[in-house]
Amino acid sequence: MKAEEFDKKFDNGDSVLEYLELAGARRVEQEQKRVNVDFPVWMVHSLDKEAKRLGIPRQSLIKILIARHLEHTGA
Fold it and tell me: Rounded CA gap, 51 and 61, in Å?
């Protein structure tokens, strides 16, 4: 399929997934990197309490809080 035909299908809202090779696809700057962080016990308790209230894992809450801070500060 030529690029022009692909673009036309995409622009028309037609599905183009069948024409894509997604096996090696990756999201830019979304790769995971493990880091270790030590928190005071009181902070872990507070994180757990808030995570439970929201119904999400502690790790997800930490990611959300850090992402919000970074977006707010423009980092």
Answer: 6
Tell me the torsion sign for CA atoms 64, 74, 31, 17: positive
Instruction: Say what the pTM is.
Output: 0.61
Distance CA 61, CA 54 (A): 9
Hey, how many other C-beta atoms are within 10 angstroms of the C-beta on 64? Answer: 14
pLDDT digits (tens, 9 = 90+) for 19-75: 888 888 877 877 888 999 999 999 999 999 999 999 999 999 999 999 999 999 987
Q: What string of DSSP letters covers 39-74?
A: --HHHHHHHHHHHHHHTS-HHHHHHHHHHHHHHHHT
